[in-house]
Fold these 2 entries.
Entry 1:
Amino acid sequence: MATFDGYPRPDGPAGVRNYVAVVPTSVAASAVAEAIGERVVENVRSTPHQMGIDPPDEARKQVERTLSGVGTNPNVGAALVVTLGTETIDADELADEISGAGRDVETLSIRNVGGTAAAIEAGVGLARDLWDGIAGARREERDARELVFGVECGGSDATSGIAANPAVGAACDRLVRDGGTASFSETPEFIGAEHLLADRCVDDGIRERLLDRVERRESTAQLMGVDLRGAQPSPGNQSGGLTTIEEKSLGAVSKGGTTPVRGIVDYANPLPVGGGLVLMDTPGYDIESVVGKVAGGAQVVAFTTGRGSTTGNPIAPVIKVTGNPKTADRLASNMDINAGTIISGESIDAVGKRIYGTLLDVASGERTAAERRRLEEFAVNELQPNELAELRGDT
Amino acid sequence: MKGTVLGDAGLHMAAADNVVTAIEDLDAGTEIPYDGTAVELDKAVPFGHKVALVPLEPGDVIIKYGETIGEAVEPISPGEWVHTHNCESRRGRGDRDVSDGEVA
């Protein structure tokens, strides 16, 4: 039986880290949240973001869902919600949702404590107290079936579809075989490969939902009378040898492995534990996409790259995998796995086995390159006007 | 890797593919064995980029991974670099719908 050493949680799967999350409700509280995180370095992680204080209703719901998901991720032992005090997102409601998952939570209003300097002082004290409350937690051996593994790609080139993505896919297949959940997203990067995913859906409902989500992303370009080529593949992808979105997608979807598609959930919605391969409908922007899966409960993320990427996440460790031998060399200090060996003859399955081993080690506490360097990018997906209109039923 | 490496130069990912992927920076004049003969590169092709194995006409599909990745938009000779200058996506093409008058 595959196992890892994790922190047991009252309401669900074990965490692979034990953090106090400092979660701002808007951009207006983000600087204070970040300062608190910097002042109390160890085990306190802030999630600063750019969302405004009064977003349109549907956009607000998505931000609330994301922040609540982040606050209840298994890697979070306790949370501090920071608000300016004028936001339409209610800090107390957000705190209640997080405490509903059995976590200790405090809220801090910048307006109520008398400004940013006072809020940072008060926040540092609250974060320390919250840490004291969870510092006694100890790792225990847990079944790998408790793991929700998010997979992402960014800075793709031709090696992504040949080496790094199929190797991560082989690791996903191993986790799914051991009873866990693997999830990949970035719906624009299903375009041209959706027929292959559709063939693997376990029932018609999931198949229809998947094809509907892909069509929505594709029709965004059609509605605007433009084509995707300006952005997909990106200029960097093109330099790396990727000519069309179809080519990029066919390489991208291999990172989820080869098992049946058991579901597709919306951005930042809960990913099932023990759920096999489950997709999430997200935009192609990798930071927002990673955050969507972490909000969905992913405790560990694998991030493949060809041309190079150094990004991490504040809450979930991010394992960087490259299939490009030049990137493996030039960005060695930011990479965890060199899958470029596949180009020179190592088997995809052997590298997949290596990645699965690293996943279990990282889940048990081994720090990734991004963690050692405190690379903790965070962004919430902002719904675009056409998406808001559709959700309101205007279209 | 999935597929077959032709002449230590190009990765042929599936039998149906009409392009190969350069697995190193290839010089002009490099020969890639294919179908009992060889295609010769007319220009240098960088690592990760694609080379045509067969003659292609505008509208012909380009196949990699055994799947359609786009279509030729000009005549392409065997041994020619295949990229955005001579191959285009068939998907997410709102621009084509506009010219066809299909978008309200």
Entry 2:
Amino acid sequence: MKKNLLVSVKLTFVLILICAVVFPFLIAGISKAAPGGGKGETITVNGKVVGYEKIGQSFTDDKYFWGRPSAAGYNAAGSGGSNKGPSNPDYLQLVNGRIDSFLAHNPGIKKEEIPSEMVTASGSGLDPDISPEGAYVQVKRIATVQNLPEEKVRALVKKHIQKPLAGILGPSRVNVLKLNIALDELK
Amino acid sequence: MNNELSGVILIFLLTVILAYPLGKYIANVFSGKKTLTGFMNPVERLIFRLSGINPAESMNWKQFLKAMLTINLLWLVYAFFLLLFQDKLPMNPDGNAGQTPDLAFNTAISFLVNCNLQHYSGESGLTYFTQLFVITFLQFVSAGTGIAVLIGLLNGLKEKTTNNLGNFWNYLVKSITRILLPLSVIVAVILVFNGTPAGFDGKDSITTLQGDSVQVSRGPAAGMIAIKQLGTNGGGWFGVNSAHPLENPSYFTNAVETISILLIPIALVFALGFYLNRKKLAKVIFGVMTFLFVIFCSITIYYELKGNPAIDKLGVAQSTGSMEGKEVRFGAAATALWSVATTSTSNGSVNGMHDSLTPISGGVVILDMMVNALYGGVGVGLLNYFIFIIIAVFISGLMVGRTPEFMGHKVEAREVKIAALVTLLSAFLIKAFTALAAYMVVHHPEIAWQVKPGAWLNNPSYHGFSEILYEYTSANANNGSGFEGLGDNNPFWNITTGIVLLLGRYLPIIAPMAIMGLLANKKFIPESPGTLRTDSGTFGMMTLAVIIIITALSYLPALALGPLAEYFSLY
């Protein structure tokens, strides 16, 4: 028992050194060579950091493409999903409210054209993406508000679709922040 | 074919293709053969010298377990005090507070037992110091403990009659230096080059394009994420784990992390075949596990891609499946695959919120944790499967009227009693505590505890019951994922799940080792034409039947009250 305890103490010290000091500092060192230098990749507009490429932002104005509803308010100080179950009546009412609000802001759009991700909260509350359909369904509103030809906005969305990995793996998506920055530059 | 389906199929195939050579490598490491990582030899010699370990010293099963339990107890005390006083320790750029005693108790136990029942959010509940010195450290050593114990068990099976299960310290160190550490470096480097932070900078404050002021949590996350997946611990850097865009930035990293979840657990099944020189036995075990795994995946992927019928009724398009709690960059299929992978392997990391899964998928992941032996947690998964084998040997022995034997050792009443007890223990812990919590919610909703029982559940009715059932099932399986709507950071949940975690970890380790110790001591009976062969397809089906029957008998009523009832109310 005494011998086990002595070995345990000594071995614990050595393993802490390896697992909690050498390993993370090694990775931190390597990360300096990575894009963003291990601090996360930021996006700069006119010399000012406007966001992190991977972190979604809240867009509530009609002139911008909207992202998904967020249970974390798109504040990456924290993160969180809604954790609502599929049969929860309050939750379904909430989604119904989002649908109505979406329709009110996007005249001329039919319910069945709204992809479900536009009215459901993401897992992280920080989802930076929407599906291409989620962007296309907003083109009409953006064109009207921004006073741009619909064709031009549609082409902009098309340009910002990120194809599946290797062309065949996983979903296509659109990064909302990048799309909105490009939209600002369009004018 | 659909892009989402081709993605998940490729991810799984790639995992198996990588796991096979890794299994061979692991067997070589522990047989003392030459391997690629020979350069670690001097490091290990230094570790042994500094710690006063003689790696050649043999241990019987009791000595082996004593060594394991001693160092685990030390880690528990160490982790508890660091979490309690983390606000007074360095590396706390965000100024986070120390944990309350009940939360520190729960967190320390959780990570000690290779679980990640995180009743806090990483962004605010830990400091960089405790993320590294408690969480990351325990993620390595608890996984190493699992592998070391498995090798001890295999040593008992390898020899005809023996008292020697090898040296626990030797196996613990080598699991880390030869398996977990090298693989973690590879995965962490992949992650940092795809956008996961690894520097020590604190929160960043930015003004968004629209003009809102928000903050972005960061930190040395990449290394921890690598070991959390590879060591089947699952504890995330950020609150939402691998659903977080910095913890899992793309479909590519998601594939890498999914492979990391399954890699070592599957490789250990192959390693068993190489180590014991019984490749056919390994194939049969792999076949049974994979059969159930693929069924579970198919069901979950089907229901998640199909979407939530209640959302269909609201009239919007669900062409991408049920998206509540999921991320667009992964999609429904890859999230479904992950949810089954993480519950099969006792990992517990998530890339989407399980609480928002459709009812049958939610039921499948709970069931998966109840079985807790489809590949399973590193090392301990095979220990759990070993218990099922012992029971299957006994039952089939009775059926055909032969003496039950496993690999030349007679299985007698004592061993079967231990195996039966440990199987019943899981069912007892899960159901008894679920009943207790449900009783509190219904009959004492207004008790003035830190969170009133009436406020524990985030969803009403059947789904609320599933939240309770999930939490205790997860604790018992040392899984750590949750139906996270549950208000679980309060003394009731911290203490009860802490107890379940401890019992759910150590008894299922002690029991198989005790069985092995008893078996290995018995006279060896050479195989004859009359022996019931355990490496045959027939015996594999027998084990499968035992798994299904035991699980169904133990848990079907509980599942009927939660996920099944919700399913019938919704469809």
